[in-house]
Automatic annotation (TrEMBL):
Annotated ranges, domain HTH araC/xylS-type: 176-277
Protein name: Melibiose operon regulatory protein
Protein source organism: Mucisphaera calidilacus
Encoding gene, per UniProt annotation: melR_1
InterPro entries in UniProt: AraC-bd, Homeodomain-like_sf, HTH-like, HTH_AraC, HTH_AraC-typ_CS
Keyword Hydrolase: no
MF GO annotations: DNA-binding transcription factor activity; sequence-specific DNA binding
The keyword Transcription regulation is assigned to this record: yes
SUPFAM superfamilies named among the record's database cross-references: Homeodomain-like, Regulatory protein AraC
Length: 279
């Protein structure tokens, strides 16, 4: 029997038969039984496999691509392949099936069959994205198609950037991970990303993260984000006619009171007075 939207399964001896959803993305989880086997197969969609445990390989032509929990294995559309588990180590995996036509940009990592080694913090992130897609796929709440498409793009781009980083032989040190997060903050300061979440994203303890963050920026995590928000608020106050409330919201503040309080720590005047004296 074919599942239109396969999700969690019992232990399987044969692969999940996938029919791609009408919007071009389907995700599933497959837990292999000890006697799991597949025939040679190919699909009209890209397939990205992320093992959770166990080990095995994907045979592609004369090559064998490893299936391991710290890797993403990519099988492009139209490529014949076969899955084999290591004896005594049946694989449990999460999989993303993606119509090539839904990709907006050219994503090089989907152009050839390959295995991509993922840093520890990226393993966590890829699993989180896939599990969120599984949840949306099974609950089908309003807008689930758009959300799944967005999450799928996010996962593919994440793997693409890991691939490019590896190709550039960039060492993924703790300091570099924090620096990368700081670069991301410059365009996402309006989001509520706690220091604990940031440390988890970078794959390190809170203490290690805050120490490196202060070494790099000279500021605490909270102070750095507040400064980015106030810098953006100054720009909006002097270049737009947006209301104070709108500016507070756009800069990441939940209410005007907290915005005024933060603004006062950086300026001697209230936002309204700052606007009048700087335009």
């Amino acid at each position: 029997m074919t599942d239109r939207h396969p999700t969690r399964t019992l232990k399987r001896q044969r692969p999940v038969e996938v029919r791609l959803a009408d919007f071009g993305v389907t995700v599933f989880e497959s837990a292999h039984a000890p006697l799991f086997s597949t025939d040679l197969m190919s699909h009209a969609f890209h397939k990205i496999l992320l093992p959770v445990n166990g080990s095995g390989c994907v045979s592609v032509r004369r090559r064998q691509l490893s299936l391991l929990p710290d890797q993403a294995t990519i099988v492009p559309a139209g490529v014949s392949h076969r899955l084999d588990d290591t004896p005594g180590q049946p694989v449990t995996l999460l999989a993303l099936c993606l119509d090539p036509g839904v990709l907006v940009d050219r994503i090089a990592c989907t152009s050839r069959a390959q295995t991509v080694a993922l840093p520890a913090h990226r393993v966590h992130e890829t699993r989180r994205l896939l599990r969120q897609m599984l949840f949306e796929q099974s609950t089908r709440k309003p807008g689930y198609r758009s959300l799944i498409l967005g999450l799928a793009h996010q996962l593919v781009v994440l793997i693409e950037r890991v691939t490019r980083t590896t190709d550039d032989k960039t060492t993924d040190t703790s300091r570099q991970r924090v620096m990368h997060h700081i670069d991301r903050l410059n365009g996402r300061f309006f989001e509520h990303i706690t220091v604990d979440r940031a440390a988890e994203h970078c794959g390190m303890s809170r203490r290690r993260f805050t120490t490196l963050f202060r070494q790099i920026t000279g500021e605490s995590y909270r102070r750095y984000i507040e400064r980015l928000r106030i810098d953006h608020a100054r720009q909006l106050l002097t270049t737009t006619d947006h209301s104070i409330l709108s500016i507070a919201f756009e800069c990441g503040f939940d209410d005007v009171t907290s915005f005024y309080r933060s603004f006062a720590r950086h300026e001697s005047h209230a936002p309204g007075h700052y606007r009048r004296t700087h335009t």
